[in-house]
User: Fold DUF5133 domain-containing protein from Streptomyces griseoincarnatus.
Amino acid sequence: MLVPDPKVVRQLLTRYATLRIAQAERQTPAVDRELEDVTRRLCVTMGTAGIHDAVARADDLLARARTDRRRSPEADGESGLSLAV
Assistant:
């Protein structure tokens, strides 16, 4: 199974949240269309049929990515390469 790039997922979630706020403040056809597009892309990226499931999966993916990054040798200042030559 392909796992989406966390950076892309984070960008989509940020755009989705920004558009939801814009829509709540002042609903316009342009914002509605863009929100619809981002919603569709987020669902496709996360492999879901609905936005609520897509957001939940995206949150899980980002949480796992943070945990994995903390556990990596690079996070400890190590490259993971042997010092032996």
